Amino acid sequence: MEVILNGENLKLSEEIVYVSDLLEYYKLLDKVVVIEVNGEILNKVDHQETLLSDRDRIEIVHFVGGG
Amino acid sequence: MLKIGPYSFQSRLLLGTGKYPNFDIQKQAVAESESEVLTFAVRRMNIFEANQPNFLEKLDSKKYTLLPNTAGAKNAVEAVRIAKLAKASGLCDMVKVEVIGCDKTLLPDPVETLIATEELIKEGFIVLPYTSDDVVLARKLQELGCHALMPGASPIGSGRGIINPLNLSFIIEQATVPVIVDAGIGSPADAAMAMELGADGILLNTAVSAAKDPVKMAKAMKLAIEAGRLGFEAGRIPKKRYATASSPLEGMSIG
């Protein structure tokens, strides 16, 4: 499927079905990240149950230094 | 003791985590500051370089309370979204509401700050709005139920210190929640002055991270804030126009 991930058009491999698959693919499972799919913010417990679909807009954010 | 909502802190210094020369210096500076609250920003991750180290990973997260900011937000809707993203991490429920209304001065948008604060309080956040030194705005935010007020001393990162001590003291006088002076602190003297005015705490970043020796400056700020607070509690003497001798005038054996 094709998605927009952090503003970039990407073709995801077929094994990526759930949000947690996406995190595993990008080696983010151990990182502190927050995912938003089509404007909906997911809690961590939802990652394994949230299906991704073609044309989804996915945002992966994290904490960076700031004041 | 600094109490913000349900949280209590020994330290009155809240430290920003931006712009340090490297993680090692940053870690030492955080330790020297003895801060218990660290601020962070929320940003898109570069997923293609996910292995890039992140300062948060280098911290004992149980030791610190995270205070994410909504920096980057230009309006209340964006600020609320950033706050919710931060909270979804499961690591924090406090938020510094920061809605910038002017790119040149980085001064906050009071109207959008007020709207975002109201919404985030409804959503159950512990809300610390960053504002200019406007007394009426501070009162309105307080009436909404914000958990601390964060008036700026001067523009973000300017290091100009407290440009309007009178306004700041008005805000402090009428406050029923802690007042944390945020932004513009340049030197330990500025921090001590804010504390002597009666502020409950200081949030600073650039004054430490961009100092020639950030580790030493972190310690200097800690000591200045402690000294300023003690001075405030001790009660300074009134200023007089003319001298008053410190030594007795009687019993002089000479002359």
TrEMBL record, chain A:
Gene3D superfamilies (alphabetical): 3.10.20.30
SUPFAM superfamilies membership: MoaD/ThiS
UniProt superkingdom: Bacteria
Signal sequence, start to end: none
Name this polypeptide is given: Sulfur carrier protein ThiS
